[in-house]
Amino acid sequence: MLESQWSRGHFVCVGLDTDPRKVPRSARKASPVMEADYDHVETMVAFNKANIDATHDLVCAYKPNIAFYEAYGAEGLSGLSRTINHVRRVAPDVPVILDAKRADIGNTNEGYTTMAFDLMQADAITVNPYLGSEALRPFLERADKGIFVLCRTSNPGAGEFQDLPVHVAGYKTKPLYEVVADNIARDWNKNKNCGLVVGATNPEQLRSVRRLIGDMPILIPGIGEQGGSLEKSVAAGKDSRGEGMIINASRSIIYASTGSDFAEAAREETKRMSDLINQYR
Question: pLDDT tens for residues 182-196?
Answer without folding.
Answer: 999 999 999 999 999
